[in-house]
Amino acid sequence: MLDPKTTTAPSAAAGTTPVLTLRGVSKHFPGVRALHDVSLSLYPGQVTALIGENGAGKSTLVKILTGIYQPDAGEIAVRGTPVKLDTAHHAFEAGITAIHQETVLFDELSVAENIYLGHAPRTRFRTIDWATMRREAKTVLDGMGAGHIHPNTRLKELSIANKHLVGVARAMSIDADVVIMDEPTAALSYKEIEDLFVLIELLKQEGKAVLFITHKFDEIYRIADRYTVFRDGEMVGDGLLADTPQDEIVKMMVGRSVDQIFPRHEKRSGAPLLEVSGLSHPTEFADISFTLNEGEILGFYGLVGAGRSEVMQALFGITQPSGGTIALGGDAIAPKSPADAVNAGIVYVPEERGKQGVVIGLPIFQNVSLPSLRRTSTSGVLQLREEFALARTFTKRLDLRAASLSQDVGTLSGGNQQKVVIAKWLATSPRVIILDEPTKGIDIGSKAAVHQFMGELVSQGLSVIMVSSELPEILGMSDRVVVMREGRIVATHENDGLTAEMLVKTAAGIGAQA
Protein backbone atom coordinates (compact mmCIF):
# COMPACT_ATOMS: atom_id res chain seq x y z
CA MET A 1 0.00 0.00 0.00
CA LEU A 2 1.16 3.50 -0.69
CA ASP A 3 2.59 5.62 2.08
CA PRO A 4 0.44 8.56 3.19
CA LYS A 5 3.29 10.86 2.19
CA THR A 6 2.46 10.14 -1.44
CA THR A 7 -0.96 11.77 -1.12
CA THR A 8 -1.55 14.29 -3.87
CA ALA A 9 -1.49 17.91 -2.84
CA PRO A 10 -4.67 19.96 -3.10
CA SER A 11 -4.98 21.65 -6.47
CA ALA A 12 -4.48 25.32 -7.13
CA ALA A 13 -8.27 25.60 -7.27
CA ALA A 14 -8.63 24.26 -3.72
CA GLY A 15 -10.44 26.43 -1.20
CA THR A 16 -10.84 26.52 2.56
CA THR A 17 -14.62 27.05 2.53
CA PRO A 18 -16.65 23.87 1.94
CA VAL A 19 -18.77 23.60 -1.18
CA LEU A 20 -21.13 21.19 0.56
CA THR A 21 -21.76 20.50 4.23
CA LEU A 22 -23.95 18.06 6.10
CA ARG A 23 -24.77 18.56 9.76
CA GLY A 24 -26.64 16.17 12.03
CA VAL A 25 -28.03 14.06 9.19
CA SER A 26 -29.92 10.92 10.26
CA LYS A 27 -31.83 8.24 8.35
CA HIS A 28 -33.75 5.27 9.72
CA PHE A 29 -35.43 2.33 8.03
CA PRO A 30 -37.66 -0.24 9.75
CA GLY A 31 -35.39 -2.04 12.20
CA VAL A 32 -32.24 -0.36 10.84
CA ARG A 33 -30.44 2.83 11.86
CA ALA A 34 -28.64 3.64 8.60
CA LEU A 35 -27.25 7.06 9.60
CA HIS A 36 -27.22 8.87 12.92
CA ASP A 37 -26.15 12.50 13.40
CA VAL A 38 -23.46 12.43 10.70
CA SER A 39 -21.50 15.38 9.39
CA LEU A 40 -19.48 15.80 6.21
CA SER A 41 -17.66 18.67 4.47
CA LEU A 42 -16.51 18.69 0.85
CA TYR A 43 -14.00 21.29 -0.33
CA PRO A 44 -13.42 22.76 -3.81
CA GLY A 45 -10.40 21.37 -5.63
CA GLN A 46 -10.01 18.51 -3.16
CA VAL A 47 -10.90 14.82 -3.00
CA THR A 48 -12.49 13.56 0.20
CA ALA A 49 -12.41 9.79 0.69
CA LEU A 50 -15.49 8.37 2.40
CA ILE A 51 -14.28 5.29 4.24
CA GLY A 52 -16.19 2.62 6.11
CA GLU A 53 -17.13 -1.03 6.27
CA ASN A 54 -20.08 -2.35 4.30
CA GLY A 55 -23.20 -1.33 6.18
CA ALA A 56 -21.51 1.77 7.63
CA GLY A 57 -23.98 4.06 5.85
CA LYS A 58 -21.97 5.20 2.83
CA SER A 59 -24.53 4.16 0.21
CA THR A 60 -27.37 5.73 2.21
CA LEU A 61 -25.44 9.00 2.34
CA VAL A 62 -24.90 8.96 -1.43
CA LYS A 63 -28.63 8.40 -2.00
CA ILE A 64 -29.45 11.33 0.28
CA LEU A 65 -27.02 13.59 -1.59
CA THR A 66 -28.50 12.57 -4.94
CA GLY A 67 -32.12 13.09 -3.87
CA ILE A 68 -33.15 9.43 -3.80
CA TYR A 69 -33.60 9.30 -0.01
CA GLN A 70 -34.77 12.10 2.27
CA PRO A 71 -33.04 12.48 5.66
CA ASP A 72 -35.14 12.17 8.82
CA ALA A 73 -33.15 14.97 10.45
CA GLY A 74 -30.25 17.32 9.80
CA GLU A 75 -29.25 19.99 7.29
CA ILE A 76 -27.57 19.98 3.88
CA ALA A 77 -26.01 23.21 2.63
CA VAL A 78 -24.42 24.10 -0.72
CA ARG A 79 -22.01 27.05 -0.52
CA GLY A 80 -23.49 27.96 2.84
CA THR A 81 -27.12 27.96 1.71
CA PRO A 82 -29.42 25.23 3.08
CA VAL A 83 -30.96 23.09 0.35
CA LYS A 84 -33.68 20.46 0.25
CA LEU A 85 -32.88 17.65 -2.19
CA ASP A 86 -36.38 16.25 -2.68
CA THR A 87 -35.62 14.57 -6.00
CA ALA A 88 -32.68 13.57 -8.17
CA HIS A 89 -33.51 16.60 -10.34
CA HIS A 90 -33.18 18.94 -7.34
CA ALA A 91 -29.76 17.44 -6.57
CA PHE A 92 -28.83 17.93 -10.22
CA GLU A 93 -29.93 21.60 -10.07
CA ALA A 94 -27.90 22.06 -6.88
CA GLY A 95 -24.77 20.99 -8.80
CA ILE A 96 -24.43 17.46 -7.41
CA THR A 97 -23.78 14.50 -9.69
CA ALA A 98 -22.72 10.91 -9.07
CA ILE A 99 -20.69 8.32 -10.98
CA HIS A 100 -21.52 4.89 -9.61
CA GLN A 101 -19.71 1.55 -9.61
CA GLU A 102 -22.41 0.36 -11.99
CA THR A 103 -22.57 3.40 -14.23
CA VAL A 104 -26.17 4.67 -14.18
CA LEU A 105 -26.53 5.66 -17.83
CA PHE A 106 -28.69 4.45 -20.70
CA ASP A 107 -27.27 1.85 -23.07
CA GLU A 108 -29.70 2.52 -25.91
CA LEU A 109 -28.97 6.26 -26.03
CA SER A 110 -25.99 7.87 -27.71
CA VAL A 111 -23.00 9.24 -25.83
CA ALA A 112 -24.16 12.82 -26.45
CA GLU A 113 -27.68 12.03 -25.24
CA ASN A 114 -26.32 10.50 -22.03
CA ILE A 115 -24.07 13.48 -21.38
CA TYR A 116 -26.87 16.02 -21.83
CA LEU A 117 -29.81 13.99 -20.53
CA GLY A 118 -32.05 16.40 -18.63
CA HIS A 119 -30.20 19.53 -19.75
CA ALA A 120 -29.96 19.26 -23.52
CA PRO A 121 -29.47 22.53 -25.44
CA ARG A 122 -32.69 23.82 -27.00
CA THR A 123 -33.66 25.68 -30.14
CA ARG A 124 -35.81 28.81 -30.01
CA PHE A 125 -38.78 26.49 -30.52
CA ARG A 126 -37.80 24.58 -27.32
CA THR A 127 -36.96 21.42 -29.22
CA ILE A 128 -33.63 19.66 -28.70
CA ASP A 129 -30.80 21.26 -30.67
CA TRP A 130 -29.16 18.02 -31.80
CA ALA A 131 -26.29 19.61 -33.71
CA THR A 132 -25.32 21.83 -30.79
CA MET A 133 -25.61 18.92 -28.37
CA ARG A 134 -23.26 16.73 -30.41
CA ARG A 135 -20.81 19.59 -30.90
CA GLU A 136 -20.74 20.47 -27.21
CA ALA A 137 -20.44 16.80 -26.24
CA LYS A 138 -17.39 16.51 -28.49
CA THR A 139 -15.90 19.62 -26.89
CA VAL A 140 -16.36 18.20 -23.41
CA LEU A 141 -14.90 14.81 -24.40
CA ASP A 142 -11.92 16.40 -26.17
CA GLY A 143 -11.27 18.64 -23.18
CA MET A 144 -10.90 15.66 -20.85
CA GLY A 145 -8.74 13.59 -23.21
CA ALA A 146 -11.57 11.31 -24.34
CA GLY A 147 -11.75 12.42 -27.94
CA HIS A 148 -11.68 8.78 -29.08
CA ILE A 149 -15.32 8.47 -27.97
CA HIS A 150 -17.69 9.64 -30.71
CA PRO A 151 -20.79 11.55 -29.52
CA ASN A 152 -23.05 9.50 -31.82
CA THR A 153 -21.92 6.11 -30.53
CA ARG A 154 -24.51 4.07 -28.64
CA LEU A 155 -23.45 3.72 -25.03
CA LYS A 156 -23.88 -0.08 -25.10
CA GLU A 157 -21.04 -0.28 -27.62
CA LEU A 158 -18.53 1.18 -25.15
CA SER A 159 -16.33 -0.62 -22.62
CA ILE A 160 -16.93 -0.17 -18.89
CA ALA A 161 -13.98 2.23 -18.71
CA ASN A 162 -15.34 4.40 -21.51
CA LYS A 163 -18.77 4.42 -19.88
CA HIS A 164 -17.08 5.87 -16.80
CA LEU A 165 -15.57 8.54 -19.03
CA VAL A 166 -19.05 9.41 -20.29
CA GLY A 167 -20.17 9.69 -16.67
CA VAL A 168 -17.33 12.11 -15.95
CA ALA A 169 -18.18 14.04 -19.13
CA ARG A 170 -21.75 14.37 -17.86
CA ALA A 171 -20.42 15.87 -14.62
CA MET A 172 -18.28 18.30 -16.61
CA SER A 173 -21.19 19.26 -18.90
CA ILE A 174 -23.49 20.37 -16.08
CA ASP A 175 -20.69 22.25 -14.35
CA ALA A 176 -21.38 20.30 -11.15
CA ASP A 177 -19.83 21.65 -7.98
CA VAL A 178 -19.83 18.21 -6.32
CA VAL A 179 -18.88 14.95 -8.06
CA ILE A 180 -19.52 11.72 -6.17
CA MET A 181 -17.54 8.66 -7.30
CA ASP A 182 -18.88 5.45 -5.77
CA GLU A 183 -16.41 2.56 -6.22
CA PRO A 184 -15.46 3.89 -9.69
CA THR A 185 -12.46 1.58 -10.15
CA ALA A 186 -14.12 -1.72 -9.21
CA ALA A 187 -14.37 -3.03 -12.80
CA LEU A 188 -11.38 -1.22 -14.33
CA SER A 189 -7.95 -2.47 -15.36
CA TYR A 190 -4.76 -0.91 -13.99
CA LYS A 191 -4.34 1.36 -17.02
CA GLU A 192 -8.00 2.42 -16.92
CA ILE A 193 -7.65 3.28 -13.23
CA GLU A 194 -4.61 5.43 -14.02
CA ASP A 195 -6.62 7.23 -16.72
CA LEU A 196 -9.45 7.81 -14.25
CA PHE A 197 -7.02 9.33 -11.75
CA VAL A 198 -5.85 11.76 -14.42
CA LEU A 199 -9.49 12.81 -14.89
CA ILE A 200 -9.92 13.25 -11.15
CA GLU A 201 -6.93 15.58 -11.15
CA LEU A 202 -8.65 17.51 -13.96
CA LEU A 203 -11.80 17.79 -11.83
CA LYS A 204 -9.70 19.11 -8.95
CA GLN A 205 -8.07 21.71 -11.20
CA GLU A 206 -11.57 22.76 -12.28
CA GLY A 207 -12.37 23.41 -8.62
CA LYS A 208 -14.79 20.51 -8.21
CA ALA A 209 -15.32 18.93 -4.80
CA VAL A 210 -14.97 15.16 -5.22
CA LEU A 211 -16.36 12.55 -2.83
CA PHE A 212 -14.45 9.32 -3.53
CA ILE A 213 -15.74 6.03 -2.12
CA THR A 214 -13.49 2.98 -2.31
CA HIS A 215 -12.30 0.05 -0.19
CA LYS A 216 -8.79 0.19 -1.64
CA PHE A 217 -6.36 1.99 0.62
CA ASP A 218 -3.73 2.39 -2.08
CA GLU A 219 -6.27 4.41 -4.09
CA ILE A 220 -7.28 6.46 -1.06
CA TYR A 221 -3.72 7.53 -0.36
CA ARG A 222 -2.99 7.99 -4.03
CA ILE A 223 -5.83 10.34 -4.95
CA ALA A 224 -7.51 11.77 -1.83
CA ASP A 225 -6.64 14.85 0.22
CA ARG A 226 -9.08 14.38 3.09
CA TYR A 227 -10.95 11.52 4.69
CA THR A 228 -14.18 10.95 6.58
CA VAL A 229 -14.76 7.63 8.35
CA PHE A 230 -18.21 6.13 9.00
CA ARG A 231 -18.84 3.22 11.37
CA ASP A 232 -22.23 1.73 12.15
CA GLY A 233 -24.02 4.73 10.65
CA GLU A 234 -22.02 7.35 12.55
CA MET A 235 -19.16 9.66 11.59
CA VAL A 236 -16.21 8.63 13.76
CA GLY A 237 -13.38 10.70 12.32
CA ASP A 238 -12.21 13.05 9.59
CA GLY A 239 -9.13 15.06 8.68
CA LEU A 240 -6.21 15.33 6.29
CA LEU A 241 -4.77 12.06 4.99
CA ALA A 242 -1.22 13.42 5.07
CA ASP A 243 -1.54 13.74 8.85
CA THR A 244 -3.12 10.33 9.51
CA PRO A 245 -1.40 6.91 9.45
CA GLN A 246 -3.23 4.15 7.62
CA ASP A 247 -3.42 1.95 10.73
CA GLU A 248 -5.29 4.69 12.57
CA ILE A 249 -7.92 4.91 9.82
CA VAL A 250 -8.36 1.12 9.78
CA LYS A 251 -8.87 1.17 13.54
CA MET A 252 -11.51 3.90 13.16
CA MET A 253 -13.27 1.83 10.47
CA VAL A 254 -13.58 -1.39 12.38
CA GLY A 255 -13.38 -0.17 15.98
CA ARG A 256 -10.35 -2.34 16.61
CA SER A 257 -6.86 -3.03 15.35
CA VAL A 258 -6.57 -5.33 12.37
CA ASP A 259 -3.15 -6.76 13.05
CA GLN A 260 -3.38 -9.67 10.68
CA ILE A 261 -5.42 -9.08 7.56
CA PHE A 262 -4.65 -12.54 6.17
CA PRO A 263 -4.93 -15.20 8.88
CA ARG A 264 -2.63 -18.00 7.81
CA HIS A 265 -4.13 -21.45 7.92
CA GLU A 266 -2.06 -24.49 8.74
CA LYS A 267 -1.16 -26.06 5.43
CA ARG A 268 -2.67 -29.54 5.34
CA SER A 269 -2.61 -30.17 1.63
CA GLY A 270 -3.49 -33.80 1.01
CA ALA A 271 -4.00 -36.04 -1.98
CA PRO A 272 -5.07 -34.65 -5.37
CA LEU A 273 -8.83 -33.99 -5.43
CA LEU A 274 -9.59 -32.07 -8.64
CA GLU A 275 -7.50 -32.88 -11.70
CA VAL A 276 -7.92 -30.85 -14.88
CA SER A 277 -6.06 -31.84 -18.03
CA GLY A 278 -5.93 -30.12 -21.43
CA LEU A 279 -9.16 -28.17 -20.89
CA SER A 280 -9.79 -25.93 -23.88
CA HIS A 281 -12.40 -23.57 -25.31
CA PRO A 282 -12.51 -22.30 -28.90
CA THR A 283 -12.20 -18.62 -27.95
CA GLU A 284 -11.47 -18.27 -24.21
CA PHE A 285 -8.66 -20.59 -23.08
CA ALA A 286 -6.45 -23.47 -24.21
CA ASP A 287 -4.67 -26.49 -22.70
CA ILE A 288 -5.53 -25.75 -19.07
CA SER A 289 -4.00 -28.37 -16.78
CA PHE A 290 -3.71 -28.17 -12.99
CA THR A 291 -4.35 -30.14 -9.80
CA LEU A 292 -6.19 -29.02 -6.67
CA ASN A 293 -5.31 -30.96 -3.55
CA GLU A 294 -7.50 -31.76 -0.56
CA GLY A 295 -7.44 -28.99 2.06
CA GLU A 296 -5.67 -26.53 -0.24
CA ILE A 297 -6.27 -22.93 -1.31
CA LEU A 298 -5.14 -22.68 -4.93
CA GLY A 299 -4.85 -19.09 -6.12
CA PHE A 300 -5.42 -18.08 -9.74
CA TYR A 301 -3.78 -14.81 -10.77
CA GLY A 302 -3.64 -12.95 -14.06
CA LEU A 303 -4.25 -9.61 -15.68
CA VAL A 304 -7.70 -8.59 -16.95
CA GLY A 305 -8.65 -10.81 -19.90
CA ALA A 306 -6.35 -13.68 -18.93
CA GLY A 307 -9.25 -16.17 -19.00
CA ARG A 308 -9.39 -17.12 -15.31
CA SER A 309 -13.14 -16.64 -14.82
CA GLU A 310 -13.88 -18.41 -18.09
CA VAL A 311 -12.02 -21.51 -16.89
CA MET A 312 -13.97 -21.50 -13.63
CA GLN A 313 -17.27 -21.16 -15.47
CA ALA A 314 -16.36 -24.21 -17.55
CA LEU A 315 -15.64 -26.21 -14.38
CA PHE A 316 -19.07 -25.18 -13.09
CA GLY A 317 -20.89 -26.19 -16.27
CA ILE A 318 -21.85 -22.66 -17.35
CA THR A 319 -19.89 -22.98 -20.61
CA GLN A 320 -18.86 -26.12 -22.42
CA PRO A 321 -15.18 -26.80 -23.19
CA SER A 322 -14.17 -28.11 -26.61
CA GLY A 323 -11.65 -30.54 -25.19
CA GLY A 324 -9.89 -31.82 -22.09
CA THR A 325 -10.87 -33.81 -19.02
CA ILE A 326 -11.99 -33.10 -15.45
CA ALA A 327 -11.71 -35.64 -12.63
CA LEU A 328 -12.98 -35.20 -9.07
CA GLY A 329 -11.80 -37.68 -6.46
CA GLY A 330 -10.49 -39.90 -9.25
CA ASP A 331 -13.84 -40.04 -11.08
CA ALA A 332 -14.22 -38.39 -14.48
CA ILE A 333 -16.93 -35.73 -14.62
CA ALA A 334 -18.25 -33.55 -17.46
CA PRO A 335 -20.66 -30.95 -16.05
CA LYS A 336 -23.20 -29.93 -18.67
CA SER A 337 -24.88 -27.47 -16.31
CA PRO A 338 -24.34 -25.88 -12.88
CA ALA A 339 -26.72 -28.49 -11.44
CA ASP A 340 -24.36 -31.23 -12.66
CA ALA A 341 -21.41 -29.48 -11.02
CA VAL A 342 -23.25 -29.01 -7.71
CA ASN A 343 -24.29 -32.66 -7.69
CA ALA A 344 -20.67 -33.64 -8.29
CA GLY A 345 -19.49 -31.43 -5.41
CA ILE A 346 -18.22 -28.27 -7.17
CA VAL A 347 -19.76 -24.87 -6.40
CA TYR A 348 -18.94 -21.42 -7.78
CA VAL A 349 -19.20 -18.01 -6.09
CA PRO A 350 -19.19 -15.60 -9.07
CA GLU A 351 -17.51 -12.23 -9.35
CA GLU A 352 -20.79 -10.50 -10.24
CA ARG A 353 -22.63 -11.49 -7.06
CA GLY A 354 -25.44 -8.95 -7.61
CA LYS A 355 -26.34 -10.40 -11.03
CA GLN A 356 -25.23 -14.03 -10.79
CA GLY A 357 -24.94 -14.82 -7.09
CA VAL A 358 -28.12 -13.67 -5.35
CA VAL A 359 -31.75 -13.32 -6.39
CA ILE A 360 -32.73 -9.72 -5.70
CA GLY A 361 -36.29 -9.54 -4.40
CA LEU A 362 -36.11 -12.78 -2.43
CA PRO A 363 -35.37 -12.80 1.31
CA ILE A 364 -32.07 -13.98 2.71
CA PHE A 365 -33.36 -17.35 3.90
CA GLN A 366 -34.75 -18.27 0.47
CA ASN A 367 -31.51 -17.26 -1.24
CA VAL A 368 -29.57 -19.56 1.08
CA SER A 369 -31.96 -22.51 0.77
CA LEU A 370 -32.52 -22.24 -3.00
CA PRO A 371 -29.96 -24.90 -4.09
CA SER A 372 -30.94 -27.19 -1.18
CA LEU A 373 -34.71 -27.49 -1.63
CA ARG A 374 -34.62 -31.28 -1.33
CA ARG A 375 -33.24 -30.89 2.19
CA THR A 376 -35.91 -28.38 3.18
CA SER A 377 -38.89 -30.17 1.63
CA THR A 378 -41.14 -33.00 2.72
CA SER A 379 -43.01 -34.87 -0.02
CA GLY A 380 -42.40 -31.95 -2.36
CA VAL A 381 -43.71 -29.33 0.08
CA LEU A 382 -41.30 -26.66 1.31
CA GLN A 383 -40.92 -26.52 5.08
CA LEU A 384 -40.44 -22.90 6.16
CA ARG A 385 -38.96 -23.94 9.49
CA GLU A 386 -36.32 -26.05 7.75
CA GLU A 387 -35.45 -23.23 5.34
CA PHE A 388 -34.92 -20.82 8.22
CA ALA A 389 -32.88 -23.36 10.18
CA LEU A 390 -30.61 -24.02 7.22
CA ALA A 391 -30.12 -20.31 6.53
CA ARG A 392 -29.54 -19.55 10.21
CA THR A 393 -26.84 -22.22 10.51
CA PHE A 394 -24.71 -21.00 7.63
CA THR A 395 -25.23 -17.23 7.88
CA LYS A 396 -24.31 -17.40 11.56
CA ARG A 397 -21.02 -19.08 10.67
CA LEU A 398 -20.25 -16.16 8.34
CA ASP A 399 -21.34 -13.45 10.82
CA LEU A 400 -23.98 -12.05 8.47
CA ARG A 401 -25.15 -8.54 9.44
CA ALA A 402 -28.90 -8.24 8.78
CA ALA A 403 -32.04 -7.18 10.64
CA SER A 404 -33.59 -10.59 10.00
CA LEU A 405 -33.39 -13.54 7.61
CA SER A 406 -36.63 -12.29 6.02
CA GLN A 407 -34.85 -9.15 4.81
CA ASP A 408 -34.66 -8.69 1.02
CA VAL A 409 -31.13 -9.67 0.01
CA GLY A 410 -31.06 -6.64 -2.31
CA THR A 411 -31.03 -4.32 0.72
CA LEU A 412 -27.80 -5.80 2.07
CA SER A 413 -24.36 -4.28 1.64
CA GLY A 414 -22.00 -5.84 -0.87
CA GLY A 415 -20.02 -7.67 1.79
CA ASN A 416 -23.14 -9.18 3.34
CA GLN A 417 -24.49 -10.21 -0.07
CA GLN A 418 -21.20 -12.05 -0.60
CA LYS A 419 -21.70 -13.88 2.69
CA VAL A 420 -25.19 -14.96 1.57
CA VAL A 421 -23.78 -16.38 -1.69
CA ILE A 422 -21.07 -18.31 0.17
CA ALA A 423 -23.61 -19.57 2.73
CA LYS A 424 -25.91 -20.74 -0.09
CA TRP A 425 -23.24 -22.97 -1.57
CA LEU A 426 -21.78 -24.20 1.70
CA ALA A 427 -25.25 -25.53 2.55
CA THR A 428 -24.89 -27.99 -0.37
CA SER A 429 -21.88 -29.67 1.36
CA PRO A 430 -19.47 -29.23 -1.56
CA ARG A 431 -16.01 -30.75 -1.94
CA VAL A 432 -14.60 -27.86 -4.01
CA ILE A 433 -15.62 -24.21 -3.72
CA ILE A 434 -14.52 -21.73 -6.40
CA LEU A 435 -14.34 -18.13 -5.17
CA ASP A 436 -14.09 -15.65 -8.05
CA GLU A 437 -12.87 -12.29 -6.70
CA PRO A 438 -14.31 -13.17 -3.26
CA THR A 439 -13.62 -9.76 -1.67
CA LYS A 440 -14.20 -7.47 -4.65
CA GLY A 441 -15.87 -4.27 -3.51
CA ILE A 442 -16.17 -5.23 0.16
CA ASP A 443 -14.60 -3.57 3.17
CA ILE A 444 -11.59 -4.58 5.20
CA GLY A 445 -13.65 -6.02 8.04
CA SER A 446 -15.74 -8.22 5.74
CA LYS A 447 -12.59 -9.22 3.86
CA ALA A 448 -11.04 -10.40 7.11
CA ALA A 449 -14.19 -12.43 7.88
CA VAL A 450 -14.13 -14.09 4.44
CA HIS A 451 -10.40 -14.84 4.73
CA GLN A 452 -10.85 -16.28 8.21
CA PHE A 453 -13.66 -18.49 7.00
CA MET A 454 -11.60 -19.69 4.02
CA GLY A 455 -8.98 -20.87 6.48
CA GLU A 456 -11.63 -22.70 8.49
CA LEU A 457 -13.00 -24.38 5.36
CA VAL A 458 -9.68 -25.87 4.32
CA SER A 459 -8.94 -26.92 7.90
CA GLN A 460 -12.12 -29.00 7.65
CA GLY A 461 -10.91 -30.65 4.43
CA LEU A 462 -12.69 -28.50 1.84
CA SER A 463 -10.61 -27.42 -1.16
CA VAL A 464 -10.73 -23.85 -2.44
CA ILE A 465 -9.89 -22.25 -5.78
CA MET A 466 -9.54 -18.50 -5.32
CA VAL A 467 -9.48 -16.21 -8.36
CA SER A 468 -8.23 -12.78 -7.33
CA SER A 469 -6.74 -9.66 -8.89
CA GLU A 470 -5.53 -8.40 -5.51
CA LEU A 471 -1.90 -9.35 -5.05
CA PRO A 472 -1.92 -9.07 -1.22
CA GLU A 473 -4.88 -11.48 -1.14
CA ILE A 474 -3.22 -13.96 -3.52
CA LEU A 475 0.03 -13.88 -1.55
CA GLY A 476 -1.68 -13.84 1.84
CA MET A 477 -4.11 -16.72 1.33
CA SER A 478 -2.84 -19.13 -1.34
CA ASP A 479 -0.85 -22.32 -0.77
CA ARG A 480 0.05 -22.37 -4.48
CA VAL A 481 -0.55 -19.83 -7.24
CA VAL A 482 -1.44 -20.55 -10.87
CA VAL A 483 -0.66 -17.64 -13.21
CA MET A 484 -2.59 -17.22 -16.46
CA ARG A 485 -1.89 -15.03 -19.47
CA GLU A 486 -3.92 -14.78 -22.68
CA GLY A 487 -5.99 -17.89 -21.97
CA ARG A 488 -3.11 -20.15 -20.95
CA ILE A 489 -1.38 -21.20 -17.75
CA VAL A 490 2.14 -19.80 -17.86
CA ALA A 491 3.38 -20.78 -14.39
CA THR A 492 2.48 -22.49 -11.14
CA HIS A 493 4.29 -21.29 -8.00
CA GLU A 494 4.56 -22.67 -4.51
CA ASN A 495 3.80 -19.77 -2.15
CA ASP A 496 7.19 -19.87 -0.46
CA GLY A 497 9.22 -16.73 -1.01
CA LEU A 498 6.83 -15.68 -3.76
CA THR A 499 6.65 -11.91 -4.34
CA ALA A 500 4.19 -9.56 -5.99
CA GLU A 501 6.86 -8.54 -8.48
CA MET A 502 7.36 -12.14 -9.58
CA LEU A 503 3.63 -12.61 -10.16
CA VAL A 504 3.17 -9.37 -12.08
CA LYS A 505 6.15 -10.09 -14.33
CA THR A 506 4.91 -13.58 -15.04
CA ALA A 507 1.35 -12.41 -15.73
CA ALA A 508 2.58 -9.63 -18.02
CA GLY A 509 5.13 -11.79 -19.83
CA ILE A 510 8.08 -9.69 -18.63
CA GLY A 511 11.47 -11.41 -18.40
CA ALA A 512 12.17 -15.07 -17.79
CA GLN A 513 9.39 -17.19 -16.39
CA ALA A 514 9.83 -18.71 -12.97
Mean pLDDT reading: 84
Q: Quick one: CATH superfamily of the domain at 17-95 and 179-254?
A: P-loop containing nucleotide triphosphate hydrolases
Tell me the helix content: 25-40%
- What's the CATH architecture name of the domain at 17-95 and 179-254? 3-Layer(aba) Sandwich
Number of strands: 22
CATH class value of the domain at 17-95 and 179-254: Alpha Beta
Strand order of the largest sheet: 6-7-8-3-9-10
> How would you classify the helix and strand content by structural class?
alpha/beta
| Biggest β-sheet description | 6 strands, mixed
Annotated CATH topology of the domain at 17-95 and 179-254: Rossmann fold
* Dominant shape: globular
* Number of distinct helices: 17
What is the gyration radius calculated from CA atoms? 24 Å
pLDDT < 50 stretches: 1-7
| Distance between the amino and carboxyl termini | 25 Å
- The proportion of strand residues reads 15-25%
